[in-house]
Amino acid sequence: MKNAPDYKAIFSNIAGCIFFIIIFIPATVHAQTRGTVEVVKDPRIDTLAAKRASLKVNGAPAANYLTTNNGYRVQIYNGSNRKEAYNAQAKFNSLYADMRTYISYTEPDFKVRAGDFRTRLEAEKLMQELRGKFTSLFIIAGKINPPKTTTGND
User: Fold this and answer.
1) Total domain count for the chain?
2) Residue 117 belongs to what domain range?
3) CA-closest candidate to residue 71, choices 110, 128, 111, 123
4) CA 20 to 30 Å from 78, out of 20, 98, 110, 138?
C-alpha cells in the first residue's frame, strides 16, 4: 500500500503559518505618522460671522428670517386644481391680510397653509374662526418662520 499524504500534518503547518502572519506581521507594520491640518478659508466667512453676531440685540436675532422653529400652520386647501388653490389663498388674505400664507405643490396636490403659530392652541383658535369659510381644515406641525417680535418701551 502506498503511503498516503498526512493531511493532518499539512493542515497543522498551514494553520501555523497563518497564525504567524496574523500575529507577527502587524507588529512590524508602523502606523501612519501624525501630520498637520491646514485650513484654507475665505476671509469673508469671518466677516459674515462677525456681522451675524452684531445683528443680535438683547440676545435675540434682530432679523427673524434667519431662524426657523417648530410650530403649527392651518391647512386651508388641499387639491389638484392650481386656480382653486390661489383662490383659497386670495380669500384667506382678504380675511387676514397681516397673516402669511404658503402654497406648496407635492404631485399631484396643491396645499395652502396659513400662519406661523408657536402653539397648537393658537392654530386651533384660527381654525375655529375659519370653520364656515373653508371646507377642509387641518392643523399641520412643522417648521415655521417665527413671527416678528416687537420690542417696546413699556
Assistant:
1) 1
2) 69-144
3) 123
4) 98
| Cα separations in angstroms, 33 against 26, 30, 37, 140 | 16, 8, 13, 54
> Which pLDDT band holds residue 152 (cuts at 50, 70, 90)?
low
Provide the sign of the torsion angle of the four alpha carbons 45, 46, 52, 55, taken in this order. Answer: negative
Q: How many residues does the chain have?
A: 154
Distance between CA 153 and CA 151 in Å, rounded? 7
Whether the predicted pLDDT of 149 surpasses 80? no
71, 144 contact by CB (below 8 A): yes
Angle at 74 between CA 70 and CA 80, to 5 degrees: 115
In a domain, 105, yes or no: yes
What pLDDT, in 10s, does the model give residues 92-132? Answer: 899 888 888 899 888 888 999 998 888 889 888 888 888 88
What SS3 state is found at 54?
A: helix
CATH number of the CATH domain containing 115: 3.30.70.1070
Is the pTM value of this prediction over 0.85?
Answer: no
